[in-house]
Amino acid sequence: MKPRAFDYVRPDTVAEAVDILAQYGDDARIMAGGQSLMAILNLRMAEPKVIVDIGGHAAFKGIKVAGGFLEIGASVTQNELMNWPDLAKASPLLAKALPWVGHFQTRNRGTVCGSLSHADPSSEIPLSLATLGGEVVLRSKRGERVVAAEEFQTGMLSTSREPDEMMVAARFPVAANLKRAAFREVARRHGDFAILALAAVAETDTSVRLGIGGLADRPVATRIDASSKSAIADALGTLAWELEGSDDIHATARYRRDLLRRLGPIVIEEAISCAA
């Protein structure tokens, strides 16, 4: 299929972009890399009147560490972040998660903030943001607001962003107790959407923050008592039943819950034993 006709605008500034969003609201879509948006347009799952292209624009670029966060601009691609020299030092979890995101070709187009905006529950970047307790920065003509990860993604492919808002940055915490990290996922092929993805950050030797992607309708992050193998097994068993999951063409909910119980202890141990 082909998308319905739309107008195309390439703003010079953030202010111009939010002016267009204020004018069009739900009839506008921001495009940074287009990796997810173009498929949605072709399938006519969205039929905007105007596309606001911010891809590659200097006003939307930038990777920096400031105020306890790794801040990533709206048009930074996944490969640009993956190849940023200080990534492993600033955010070990992101450094381990990004190689699982799609393929080299898709990472050249797909952006970090675009993945967060698309809000697929199996995606690695939203999972990393939730696990680290990050936040996103939204801007509109009404001003700027910062939304925590757990409040931003509200369900399958849905977020709390208002129609007149655009994401201008994503912020991943870089605290010292977030340096011991591990990431694993199970997919049909490397680069496919995860059947189940797990991210872990060892805050202490006995307390691990575990993120789960692909089981619920959004990434879920929780603290796990890692004081013993039995404590970990009990926590994962309870968590698997609480999240329930659902069947789809890729896997059953039961298989996903079993993956959580079996892969969870491995990822947790990897994070605890990882050098800070």
Textual characterization of the structure:
With 276 residues, the chain is α+β, with helices and mostly antiparallel strands. It folds into 3 domains: 7-53, Uridine Diphospho-n-acetylenolpyruvylglucosamine Reductase, domain 2; 60-173, Uridine Diphospho-n-acetylenolpyruvylglucosamine Reductase, domain 3, CATH 3.30.465.10; 177-273, Enolase-like, domain 1. Helix content is 34%, strand content 26%. The chain contains 11 helices and 14 strands. The strands form 4 sheets. A 5-stranded antiparallel beta sheet has the order 4-5-10-6-7. It has a 4-stranded antiparallel beta sheet with strand order 11-12-13-14, sandwiched between helices. β4 and β5 form a beta hairpin. The protein is globular. The N and C termini lie far apart (49 Å).
- Specify the CATH architecture of the largest domain: 2-Layer Sandwich
Radius of gyration: 19 Å
Number of strands: 14
CATH fold node name of the largest domain: Uridine Diphospho-n-acetylenolpyruvylglucosamine Reductase, domain 3
Strand content: 25-35%
End-to-end separation: 49 Å
H/E series, N to C? Answer: EHEHEEEHHHHHHEEHEEEEEEEHH
Question: What overall form do the CA principal axes indicate?
Answer: globular
Main sheet makeup: 5 strands, antiparallel
Which spans have pLDDT < 50 for at least 5 consecutive residues?
none
Question: Helix- and strand-based class?
Answer: alpha+beta
Mean pLDDT: 95
- The CATH class designation of the largest domain is Alpha Beta
Whole-number total of structural domains = 3
- Binned, the helix content reads 25-40%
Order the strands across the largest sheet as they lie in space.
Answer: 4-5-10-6-7
